[in-house]
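[job 0412] stage=fold_complex status=start
inputs:
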Amino acid sequence: MTTQWTTVFPGLPERQDEPVTHAARGSGGPTDGPLTDAELQLAARNHALPLEILREEVTPPGLHYLLIHFDIPAIDAGSWRLSVAGAVQRELSFSLEDLRARPAVTVPVTLECAGNGRSLLRPRPLSQPWVLEAVGTAGWTGTPLAPILREAGLHDDAVEFVFTGADRGIQGGREEDYARSLTLEDIERQGAFLAYAMNGAPLPPQHGFPVRLMVPGWYGMTSVKWLSSIEAVTRPFDGYQQAVAYRYLQDPQEQGTPVNRIRVRSLMVPPGIPDFFTRRRIVDSGTVRLQGRAWSGHGTVESVEMGVDGTWSPAELEPALGGHAWRGWSVSWDAEPGDHELRCRATDSTGAVQPLEPEWNLQGMGNNVAQRVEVTVRAPRV
Amino acid sequence: MTTQWTTVFPGLPERQDEPVTHAARGSGGPTDGPLTDAELQLAARNHALPLEILREEVTPPGLHYLLIHFDIPAIDAGSWRLSVAGAVQRELSFSLEDLRARPAVTVPVTLECAGNGRSLLRPRPLSQPWVLEAVGTAGWTGTPLAPILREAGLHDDAVEFVFTGADRGIQGGREEDYARSLTLEDIERQGAFLAYAMNGAPLPPQHGFPVRLMVPGWYGMTSVKWLSSIEAVTRPFDGYQQAVAYRYLQDPQEQGTPVNRIRVRSLMVPPGIPDFFTRRRIVDSGTVRLQGRAWSGHGTVESVEMGVDGTWSPAELEPALGGHAWRGWSVSWDAEPGDHELRCRATDSTGAVQPLEPEWNLQGMGNNVAQRVEVTVRAPRV
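[job 0412] stage=fold_complex status=done
writing structure:
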């Protein structure tokens, strides 16, 4: 294991065998209070997709969502190496050129942050305060992961792989390199790969340069950026990002269940023009073509409905960009003067449908509540 | 004039001859209250520079700050035209290829949002709630503007030029295309140009594709994105972004003074590693090389000082990247265990120095208060 545990703040607990509870997580519990300066600082650092850019099937560079837990590390691609070690028969080490020389795949992937929608929960969990735009779609190019792991060979007692990035910091009183784990079964089922290009160009620093893990269909925390090592381990990984963060739970004492695949969601391009401050939309009356995109990590998006003031009608679906990417949808709306509430909700092939009210959990994970857009329709100007 | 005025919200004033006062600006007055959902939505849309990226002299694509008042417009570069009209002797029209065929300059420019630092003011003006990171530096390529204006020829009664973008929305109850004006004197003094490339690549959509105005040394609101027209006008432009927003004033009834050149500022790369939620820094004791960048639109940066717990010492300055770009600085710090407050402040060639406390104004413009970074230094681990 390459991770280290250190207690750096007086008063925070030393690492113990019992799970770290929410009170030790550094941010305090969910609150009914106002937004805090710490949340604002996180909102300034991390980037969301401006909703109008949902019109683009592939998110333009620089507009894809970004959540960076610690700092963006400075990595020299020439000296960078990826090690594959632990409970394996042969330790391996790859340079960037080694990975580029292997068989390559390019996969369109919709990535979403598991905390997307968090700021809409009441009480509000204290972390990155996403509204609804922590998403993006890119074509990622890399080499499949499973063949590399087969080349290394697993010991019989290995249970999963730990993926560790070069970004390091403190969360909930623990100091760690950012790290997450996956079983070989999940790696194979999701078609995980080691990505070194995004939309045909080398990864930008903020997306994991030179190499990141890419796990299509799962929330973004799994696709570890700035990948430095892969380690086969003989007991389930208990790093902070695996065992404490990114779990669905209602109560701090629960272990909860792991966050993994992306829940079904749709978003619309807000129609018309915005008010700068409120982002309320102003639309001219008449026929308006509403459009958006929908995705799910659990299955195919089967339908999208548009709700206007509580009345739902089906949208037309476009083909998906790929098995793990969003699909476009559109629907016509006869916009009549007055104030209206637009909502959209998607249903996937498992029958899962977006809820109309947020489903609360302690850490604000997987809130796929149906989007709400407030619109003022104005009469034709004469 | 291509701008239109429309009152779209009941209760907001029709356009009148008297200046629009702050109460009509749509966001309400400054507040001592908590952060609002509207501010959070703006913070989610707009992007700041993660402070660790100050280590890069040229900001990597996708990490440069972004403030987008309305929506990012979708523009077809093939059919895009820039018109030069109004009080000119010859109306002109340029395609993107026309501009690319003209003499080209590439200029490294540090751009900063005039509202940078706004969220630190008390009471807090209600708008995009920047902390301190609304900055970035890129190499911008384009063609000088003044020769184009000379080719058009000015009528004797023309007083300035209005630059209008393709982004449209409502601010303070007024509906307008985003527009700003400049005099010919300012255009020539600042070396303004029409930029079609950023760091050697076509402009990304969010930075004004296909062409934006670039006014080195002035705050970013002047460098109009998605430029669609240039119009010579015979009386000073009174558009919202010129006459109401982007003015220094203390009282809603004042006209105030225009915001234009960038005030001197320095920022440091926060040392050590962060706590995810609080962004507090953890540093190992010993000698730490602190580094950052400093810039001013009023003159050359002449000195940078680092303050540790209130004691100031000079930093070493690197050459500036260019006459309108930041310069790097660094200083060694003997970090002793305990909690410390780091600050940096720059002085420019006009003698202007960053204040240690914010200087308040009604719209939160030009707050160049010295940055403050809280650090916990820990003893060597054994």
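[job 0412] summary: The radius of gyration of chain A is 22 Å.
[job 0412] exit 0
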